[in-house]
Write a structure and sequence with these properties.
Length: about 450
């Protein structure tokens, strides 16, 4: 017994297959980009939508097949074939949602998916309940299974490659891929149909079974319903992708704002050096480290000499540029673990994180002053500036960090009395000299 095909329904089955494939590509991205409970919701919902699409293509293709006898399909067995399609789709989405697609994963997934699609098809054929049973051409049967496995391997690979593309991005690539996948799925179906051989005296027992479906408009109803489901799924995926993109942009904006606020709270806006707040934290860390390891750290209080005349003569823009250049030179003179901070105006505080002996601070101070004494070229001006440095050492000069800073300040003023470009260690007698000067 030889069957014929309704070409309009064949075309409809191909359209459904391509639409289902395009939906699968989108759903692969949604499952991959979501986490936790949302990921499982997309996996289950995607499996239902994608599986319904694959099954619908298969069933429309079967309804397009016509024999010179009355035909129908057992309802329970037909629904079983749909369940198989949904399960296979869930497996496919799970495989492509993995962080990496290894040879083992894609091989096992493709084989199981191809076997599942073949099982769905031949289960659907069994729903016809033919008597005598359908006989299949062995060669075409094997070819149909091979096509299903190869198509599944290709579909998994394509879906994995395109899964992270946002909706609307690379639409042509997804559409072309969906067309290839749809043709492959359809090719497997019609190859399997060609393998079926019907006896001349065949009867379709499903016609008399409970729930046998014979409605001529059934194929069109299923096709339109499936296309509607797939279209709604694509729409939801597009909206979810848009919301995810907007949320990501909002999160990035909030993070940038938080980073900016944190930067303003901890760093000097002009030079980018740590400000008073961050300096306090660095001093606490240095003190804790010194107490734990029985080491010294030094605090250098540096004040620029004759900086005000630069502002008065050349303007504040040149003065600001000079401060930036000074900050860079100071950074170049110390180690990465040391801290150079600007506490205001032309005052800088340097924390030498760990020194072997208090005398080491003098070596660094000389290096700093020598670098500052070199001319600065700011725009068209060559500027010369010097500095005065006061040194206090933890814990010798004080274990109180506020007092340690105040002692370095006192030492800095003592250095200024010696003349520009000098440094001085703190000694207790300096406080008495400061008190006399203030009187």
């Amino acid at each position: 017994m030889i069957g014929t095909y309704d070409l309009q329904l064949v075309v409809l089955s191909l359209i459904v297959a391509i639409t289902a494939s395009f939906t699968a590509l989108e759903l692969a991205g949604r499952v991959s980009q979501t986490q936790g409970k949302s990921s499982w919701i997309w996996l289950v919902g995607g499996a239902f939508s994608m599986g319904t699409g694959i099954w619908s293509m298969h069933f429309i293709g079967m309804l397009a097949f016509e024999l010179p006898i009355t035909m129908a399909y057992d309802f329970i067995i037909t629904m079983l074939s749909m369940v198989i399609a949904i399960a296979v789709s869930g497996l496919a989405l799970f495989v492509v949602s993995r962080p990496a697609l290894t040879l083992r994963n894609i091989t096992a997934g493709g084989a199981l998916m191809g076997a599942g699609i073949s099982t769905m098809h031949y289960t659907g054929m069994f729903a016809m309940q033919m008597s005598p049973p359908i006989v299949y051409d062995p060669l075409l049967f094997i070819v149909s299974v091979i096509i299903a496995i190869v198509a599944s391997l290709a579909a998994l690979w394509i879906a994995f490659q395109l899964r992270l593309k946002d909706f609307g991005v690379a639409v042509l690539a997804k559409l072309a891929s969906a067309t290839v996948m749809g043709l492959a799925i359809t090719g497997m179906h019609y190859t399997a149909m060609a393998a079926a051989q019907f006896s001349p005296d065949s009867l379709c027992l499903a016609v008399d079974s409970t729930g046998g479906m014979q409605n001529e408009a059934l194929a069109l109803t299923i096709g339109l319903t499936t296309l509607f489901i797939l279209t709604v799924t694509l729409g939801i995926s597009a909206l979810d992708s848009r919301f995810a993109t907007d949320n990501a942009k909002l999160a990035d904006s909030l993070q940038a704002a938080n980073d900016q606020l944190r930067y303003l709270a901890l760093y000097d806006s002009l030079t980018g050096l740590p400000n008073r707040t961050l300096l306090g934290d660095r001093l606490q860390l240095a003190a804790s480290h010194s107490d734990r390891n029985k080491k010294f750290f030094a605090l250098l209080f540096l004040d620029l000499d004759e900086f005000k005349p630069v502002n008065d003569k050349y303007g504040h823009d040149i003065g600001d540029a000079l401060l930036k250049a000074v900050a860079q030179r100071l950074l170049n003179c110390v180690r990465k673990e040391d801290t150079v901070s600007r506490t205001g105006g032309d005052e800088f505080i340097i924390v030498l994180y760990e020194i072997r002996a208090p005398e080491d601070a003098a070596l660094v101070s000389r290096k700093l002053l020598n670098e500052l004494a070199k001319p600065f070229v700011i725009e068209q001006y060559e500027l010369t500036i010097m500095g005065s440095i006061g040194i206090s050492v933890y814990p010798n000069d004080s274990q109180n960090l506020m007092m340690l800073k105040a002692n370095a300040d006192v030492a800095m003023y003592n250095a200024k009395r010696k003349g520009a470009n000098n440094f001085a260690y703190y000694v207790p007698e300096m406080k008495a000299a400061v008190t006399i000067d203030n009187q």
